[in-house]
Amino acid sequence: MFNLFGSSKLCDLAEDGDLDGVKRAIARGADVNERGLFKMTPLMAAAAKGREDVVAYLLSLPETDVDTLNAGGTTALMTAARGGHLGTVKLLLADPRCDANRLGKWGGTALMNAAGFGHADVVEELLKVEGISLAATYTDQKYSPITIARKNGHDAIAKRLEEFETARAQKPQSQQSRNPRGGGMRP
After folding, report:
1. Using N-to-C axis directions, what is the helix angle for 120-127 and 155-170, rounded to 10°?
2. If exposure means fewest CB atoms within 10 Å of the residue's CB, which of 4, 31, 75, 174 is most exposed?
3. 129 and 184 Cβ atoms separated by less than 8 Å
């Protein structure tokens, strides 16, 4: 089978969803953070394909680097959000090492990916994250999750994000979250 993120045996196994193979490779000494094609890690390869059991296993390993960037400048959470893999997004967000507001190489976020690709269920999950950012962050054109959703024809998502932003702005300052340490933890 052709693997998009291959060139690393462990990335191939993770992308294929071969949990037993991933466990065997790691038990034999494979580096859980080894890089495959496009500098994808096994966690990214599994997240991009929505391989929840492999993602859960890799997250159980303390040495797994959850927020590292691949060559394209995205994290495992960003790749899962882009693919619309809600279960995988939930697993990643539950890990305290995962920062939902982590900026990619070009300034994108997981919320921008979900909004831009029209994954309303993933957008809703990300909106549960305390302190989630709706700021314009792209370094080249200053897109926000709202503008990128609208630009890509996902008007219902853009409207939901605007409503969220309005409701958050109306909360008293004491009820608004401050930039939480440890990333995008949910209450």
Report:
1. 10
2. 174
3. yes
Same domain flag for 14 and 90: yes
Instruction: Give 20: exposed, middle or buried? Use CB within 10 Å, 0-12, 13-18, 19+.
Output: exposed
146-173 residue pLDDT tens: 999 999 999 999 999 999 999 998 877 6
| Alpha carbon distance 50, 112 (integer Å) | 18
DSSP conformation letters of 72-84: TS--HHHHHHHHT
- List pLDDT tens digits, range 89-130: 999 999 999 999 998 887 889 999 999 999 999 999 999 999
Q: How far apart are CA 156 and CA 119, in angstroms?
A: 11
Domain with 140, as residue range(s), is 102-177
Q: Which of 108, 121, 117 is nearest to 152 (CA)?
A: 117
Would the pTM of this model clear 0.85, i.e. be above it?
yes
